[in-house]
Design brief:
The protein is an alpha+beta fold and about 325 residues long. It has a domain at about 10-150 and about 280-335: Bira Bifunctional Protein, Domain 2 (BirA Bifunctional Protein, domain 2), CATH 3.30.930.10. The protein contains 10 helices and 12 strands. Strands 1, 5, 6, 7, 8, 9, 10, 11 and 12 form a 9-stranded mixed β-sheet that branches. A 3-stranded antiparallel β-sheet has the order 2-4-3, with no helix packed on it.
Length: about 325
């Protein structure tokens, strides 16, 4: 018996079963049917670009665009896209209608039960759409794909109050820390207001997210303004703090989609990118280029719009009841 040959015979094939791959294809068709029924235009944009999203936690894969194959270490540095967002917004600035696409996205350092460095993202944008309408469309799509009915909705604040017993907007950092660890001095973050979002993210992942979407898909919305990412801000009601018009879809404790009412102000975007680069350097990471084709497009005028990015592999994983992305991807990282 040739054990090496036998091992290669096992590993050359897909990690997903043919039943799961057939379900993947069926859900792709269903998603396209949904967007065609709503008169969206399907688009295709580059996965390799000189531009990249500047985010504290998203690390793009870098590609050297060498001119001479004998000197492959010399050349301009480009990026595999962490999402098709930049190019799709450039299309919107050029007058595009409602658009969607299935795009391969790449993120360095992401590998696990629910992560793969390369994955399929379904992303869409609707000019002039409100957060309420955007959440309804996301709920409708989730029901179309998962057949679990209307999504429940809960604000970020109410989720923390009911599931973690803290007010993420008003409670002191010490109380937020006490909700997650009995020994804050041994935690990765200081008990300092400057690290409030770090504590909230930790509490979200450990205490809140696992309980979201257990009965039916759930949309978490109205995030703290400090976690706006690329979402616009909305003044709070009756003296309450401003919130980010950002929302996320969960099912069975797994995040499936992330949406915004998009920021359209180029100066604010620059400021947020600069702050993200400051935080990246604080984390020991390299800063990312701020100037981009998106910024140029926004200076010309990006229409008010909503945008949603959905991890399609995760949707398939939950639809078939699989425990891992490896069970629905033909060739995940370990077999790529």
């Amino acid at each position: 018996m040739n054990l090496v040959a036998d091992a290669l015979k096992i590993e050359f094939g897909p990690s997903a079963s043919w039943t799961h791959l057939a379900k993947y294809a069926a859900l792709l068709r269903k998603a396209r049917e949904f967007f065609e029924r709503h008169d969206f235009l399907e688009v295709v944009t580059p996965i390799l670009s000189r531009d990249t999203v500047v985010d504290r936690h998203l690390d793009p894969l870098r590609v050297v665009m060498y001119a001479d194959p004998r000197q492959v270490s010399e050349g301009a540095e480009w990026y595999l896209q962490t999402s098709p967002e930049f190019h799709m917004k450039r299309l919107l600035a050029a007058g595009a209608p409602a658009i969607y696409q299935f795009a391969h996205a790449f993120r360095a350092g992401e590998r696990g039960q629910h992560h793969n460095p390369e994955f399929l993202m379904l992303e869409w944008y609707v000019p002039g759409q409100s957060q309420l309408a955007a959440m309804q469309m996301l709920s409708d799509l989730a029901n179309h794909l998962l057949e679990q009915g209307e999504a429940e909705r809960i604000t970020y604040r109410d989720a923390f109050l009911s599931l973690a017993m803290v007010d993420p907007f008003d409670d002191p950092v010490a109380k937020i820390a006490a909700a997650i660890t009995s020994n804050p001095s041994q935690s990765p973050f200081p008990l300092d207001e400057a690290f409030r979002d770090d504590w909230l993210d930790w509490l979200l992942v450990e205490r809140v997210e696992p309980q979201l979407g257990r009965q039916r898909p759930t949309i978490l919305y109205d995030y703290p303004s400090s976690q706006a990412a690329l979402a616009r801000l909305r003044p709070g009601a009756a003296g309450s703090p401003a919130v980010a018009e950002r929302f996320e879809l969960y099912w069975q404790g797994v995040e499936l989609a992330n949406g915004y009412c998009e920021l359209c102000d180029s100066e604010q975007l620059c400021q947020r990118f600069e702050e993200n680069n400051r935080l990246r350097q604080q984390d020991g990471k390299q800063p990312l280029p701020i100037e981009s084709g998106l910024l140029h497009a926004m200076r010309q005028g990006l229409p008010e719009c909503s945008g949603v990015a959905l991890g399609f592999d995760r949707v398939v994983m939950l639809a078939v009841g699989a425990p891992s992305l490896d069970d629905v991807m033909a060739f995940p990282y370990d077999r790529a």
